[in-house]
Design goal:
It is a single chain. The protein is mostly beta strands and about 260 residues long. It is about 5% helix and about 45% strand. The protein has 2 domains: about 40-145, Immunoglobulin-like (Sandwich); about 145-258, Carboxypeptidase-like, regulatory domain (Immunoglobulin-like, Sandwich). The strands form 4 sheets. Strands 1, 4, 5, 8 and 9 form a 5-stranded mixed β-sheet that branches. Strands 10, 13, 14, 17 and 18 form a 5-stranded mixed β-sheet that branches.
């Protein structure tokens, strides 16, 4: 669920003041609020393998876990339940900061970026956490939705956040017809994502492969894509882990954007 920020409170205060003045004099000139409109959106993913729990910030504004108890977001999680948070347009320093302990509020990933008006974004911590340097990778992608959604299909994109993996291509095999789609359109390098691709509604087995390989590097079965909905499939984990149960194994995360 979107949460209010400092700018939201300023906007509400301005509106309340304007209303109070107008009630005193029916001929009073109403002053419209001049603060930035919060019509842009951003969501947060903590995909840095081995990293401690974090909270996400835009400059000094806390964007996730804003209501106590603020235990922070664990590895593999999406901030605010995967929902977008409102944010005003402008330049920001986005950070994922350690949420507790001796290193509380220490940034492990920092990205300087500019949020455009009316746009949607996703910020990822990624790669393998360096416990000595207490640092991880991070990147921001713009979530570009088609202007005219097709409610007869689902929209799916692929994001690569595995720091020690080569470029990957994502495929989806329909469990009923066995038709196989190349969802990513080709190989996707680390810290990159594809456009949203129309996929017929259905249940799919997903698999990611290296370029020109016939071996599945990462798999996930029985993923449902519902018509009219939008999904991001994120490759995360440590590509060298071979265990089928370890939390750090390479896997395909499925998050609904809309």
């Amino acid at each position: 669920m979107d949460h209010p920020t400092v700018n939201t409170y300023r906007l509400l205060a301005t509106l309340l003041c304007a209303g109070a003045l107008a009630s005193c004099d029916k001929n009073a000139v109403q002053v419209l609020p001049t603060g930035p409109l919060l019509d842009s959106r951003i969501k947060f993913f903590h995909f840095a393998v081995g990293a401690p729990n974090v909270n996400f910030y835009a400059d000094s504004i806390k964007m996730t876990a804003v209501v106590p108890p603020a235990t922070g977001l664990a590895y593999g999680g999406a901030g605010n339940g995967g929902a977008y948070s409102t944010i005003a347009a402008g330049p920001y320093t986005l950070t994922g900061r350690i949420s507790s302990g001796a290193d509380i509020n220490r940034p492990i990933a920092t990205i300087d970026t500019t949020i455009a008006t009316g746009r949607f974004y996703s910020f990822y911590t990624s790669g393998l956490y360096n416990a000595v340097g207490k640092i991880a990778d991070g990147f921001v992608l713009e979530d570009v939705y088609p202007g005219h959604p097709d409610y007869g299909t689902a929209l799916v994109r692929f994001v690569h956040t595995i720091g020690n993996a080569a470029p990957l291509t994502l495929y989806a095999a329909n469990t009923v017809t066995n038709d196989t789609l190349t969802v990513s359109g080709g190989a996707v390098a680390y810290k990159n994502g594809t456009v949203f691709t129309a996929v017929p509604a259905g249940v799919y087995n997903l698999f990611a492969r290296y370029t020109d390989s016939t071996t599945n590097t990462i798999t996930r079965d029985a993923v449902s894509f519902v018509a009219g909905h939008v999904y991001t499939i994120g490759a995360r984990g440590n590509i060298t882990v071979t265990s089928t149960t370890a939390a750090t194994r390479p896997m395909l995360d499925n998050t609904a954007n809309r």
